[in-house]
Amino acid sequence: DGGITQSPKYLFRKEGQNVTLSCEQNLNHDAMYWYRQDPGQGLRLIYYSQIVNDFQKGDIAEGYSVSREKKESFPLTVTSAQKNPTAFYLCASSIQSSTGPLNIQYFGAGTRLSVL
Amino acid sequence: AQKVTQAQTEISVVEKEDVTLDCVYETRDTTYYLFWYKQPPSGELVFLIRRNSFDEQNEISGRYSWNFQKSTSSFNFTITASQVVDSAVYFCALTEETSGSRLTFGEGTQLTVNP
Known about the structure:
By secondary structure, chain A is an all-beta fold. Chain A contains no helices and 11 strands.
């Protein structure tokens, strides 16, 4: 089945700990994204990557880090510097078109992160 | 800067009623794309539709229809004869040609369809 897999579904973080959320896609998409969703709010972009070994900060990148060593993988690390990490995290991917933002983003099922 | 406003935080209807979800956007670009996504209780966002700024034709897909009006910067979504399975949070989103792949989402509308 083609799609985007996020793991784990639920994650708990202790104070001062870094945690990493996994996102894998087998859609052969070039671009991948991480969003944060808080209750009653829309999605906010954390980081995105349009190509392997390159990524850009989104609107709320502070306290987060990413890597893009492989086309199919885009892990997100929530560092201890992120003081309010409790949220629902969604990963997405899209094709990257040179003719314009032909960018229907397809989403994974999300990871719910809570602080212990 | 781009912005999307979904003024309706929550809507509750009875099954078989028609319901319209409002979306108003702001952009300075002449080329942009608008989207609607559905987020069921499982959490995954499901793509529903994409429109570009040069195509103002309304679209119908089964019980779903979309009304795009550039004059009022609106892209409203109507569900006809709603069903309980339509209960979800619906997001409107916008991307400008100059912003590459970045999507700006509205805050979402929680639709509850009661039997």
